[in-house]
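Q: Hi! First time doing this. I have a protein sequence and I read that you can turn it into a structure. Is that right? Here it is:
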Amino acid sequence: MRRLSFANLCCSVFALVSLPVHALQIPLEAGPWQILGYRGIPVNEVDFSGDGMEIGVNGSASAIVYPLKAVGRYGRLHVDAVIHGSVDLGENAQGEKGGDDFRLRVGLVYAGDKTLNFFQRTVAPKWIRTLYALAPKGSGISRVEFYNTWQDPLLDGRERAHPTTAIWREHFVLMTDAAGRVNQVLAIPTDADIVAVWISSDGDDTGSSYRVRIDSLSLDPA
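A: Yes, that's right. Below is the predicted 3D structure, encoded as structure tokens:
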């Protein structure tokens, strides 16, 4: 997926007051989610009319963000989804320039103290300013941990800092079966509060078309 200048500035969103947490089922309904587009890139179709969230990708991308009401430290992430179709990588290496598209990335936004200054707020793309507007004044984030599906077997089990967005860490650990089903429980870092969930499915780098249906997302306490 093509990244925009100032993407690093999204490190200024969502920090809230930490509360004791219990198991949290993320609601897959339209109201709480923010669907944010990127400049010059078509936005994914997102439908909540069924029993979950369905994402239609057609050479498109978007950030689908859910700010948590129950901010806190969680220790496990459960993802249940099904994917129809694939990323058309051609000769491109997945994750590199021209092939940085993944069918499903589930991101966890961790609290921190990084914020936008006046100049950054003035020149940042609209989607970053929108993310920042969701946070109380003076709050921010430290990083986003993404848990990705993959098609290139060389990525299996690997981790990386995203090459163009330093605060994004990617873990290639979400496995799909032959039917495109993802059903996995993952251990996640507990060193800071999680303040939001970020869903990403993209096809803008490769012109790919496919669909993702998320049936369940949940977080268990540390």
